Amino acid sequence: MANRSYLYALNGVPALNVPIDALEVTGISEFNYSIPLVYRLLVSSDPMACQSLIWGEAGQIGIIGSYGGGVERLRTFLQRLEHPVAAPLVSATLDFLALEGNRRSHFLLEAGEIFEMSDEPLQLQNEELLAEIAQLDPTLEPLPVFSDAKKPTSWIGRLLAPPPEALERPLLEIGLGYWSNVLYFDFDQTEGS
Asked: Which residue did the predictor score with more confidence, 169 or 152?
């Protein structure tokens, strides 16, 4: 199994004294082996450390931020992506986040599995990540670099040109295109009802 970061939407702030069934939790996305820029931007509006829903005994190793503010910060970043390959992924992202079933008051970033890949204490890693997220500016974050500045005109250039899937790679690396309500850790309270 790959170590993943997880992004959830929920209607409250996880805490030791708040039972999980008191929160409406919806899976939004998961990403292998890192914490992508898109997740960081989505929790960057009023970010704060909170209790983990997955690793409750580990303490405050979750990061929570405003859902609406996070979507607006991501939208600001995405408006800067003018490459034609980006348009379908940007549209799919904003459409997914606007779905009624996904919207809640907060985003929750769960990065415990990513933190476990390091020897540093989990809480310290979360504090460092929170400080980094608090400094994010969607108008200044580096944009993905695409390798197709010009379409080749010679036959050999067209033969050696990157396939369309390769042009999407920079967008996938920042976390676009991985939207799903079904995550490895699922907190759906409707099961069995």
From this structure: 169
